[in-house]
Here is the input.
Amino acid sequence: MNTYGRYPVVLVRGRGMKVWDSDGKEYTDFLAGIAVNNLGHCHPRVVIALQKQAQKLIHVSNYFHIEPQIKLAKMLVQNSFADRVFFCNSGAEANEAAIKLARKYAKENLCPDKFEIITALNSFHGRTLATITATGQGRFQKGFTPLMPGFKYVPFGDVGAVANAITENTCAVMLEPIQAEGGVNLPPENYFRELKTLLEEKNLLLILDEVQTGMGRTGKLFAYEHYGITPDIMTLAKALGGGTAIGAALATEKVAEAFSPGDHASTFGGNALACAAGTASLEAILEDGWLVSNCARIGEYFKKGLAGLKQKYNFIRDIRGKGLLIGMELDIDGTDIVKDAMKEGYLINCTMQKVLRFVPPLIVTEEEIDGLIQALDRIFEKRSAAA
Here is the structure.
């Protein structure tokens, strides 16, 4: 269906940082399937895990236990704040599960009238009817009204605005640690600590949408580790499966107990194939410790290179990000720059029309970053001369 503004390119093969199209042209991928391929394309551990699992068991019903699901759940719990995991197929589904769990917990443990969730302006939480309502951007909601009731929006990074929005009906606050789709927006330094204190005082839940920030993307395994707090519920997807479709909602035991058999489900959620890939992906990140440390180190190198362009071109407004989630805000439309970069052999992304977003695999090198910087310099030079 006509749901994607696709480029006239057919990608047929990938390896590491590189992809090739049907005409044989090579691209260096700084989009990574929109922060999915954190290990690069076709990482050997993920490929082998998929091959081995496909020969044994691909799918059975969640009426039964399966080893790959148990193994991945155990690894996630051992390396996070959480005690329980619900597996699904995408970030939107993970956020749906989080929304349902927060409401069920509040109604059973606090008050039957609690159902509202506070989210942030410029947030993004998915494409289902509930998650576009949770998303604080009207462009995703246009044409789909009436929206689901029970959501309020406040400015990102403003604890006072959250406090003012809380009513007797509020059950949770749902936020991204860094707003990625909304323009790579970072919170003020003490925002999450102050917010967590407020929510504990009010006995409200904190849901963190780490669909894009999780799995090492920001230089920590999970972005909440930067802020010295833990959520009550966290959602994952994208890079969790190493390129395969999987999502997860993680929660503390106290909150997870609100779900009973039949409250929520997913036919393909946590299937053997996806969990085998997810286990291989998480093992690679945990055992090859240089991946996350490289992300933090090389992210700073990347930002310095982009900052050099900012000094040269006055239409670059800001460089911001954490780890390898980086945004370059422009005074001009960035959509054509994405096309120009493709001609130069680089895949990048533009969000909010004027923010170039860079989310390369965590294996990216200084040489590959230098190549992109040089390509952007050529592109910007042409646009500056034309202007």
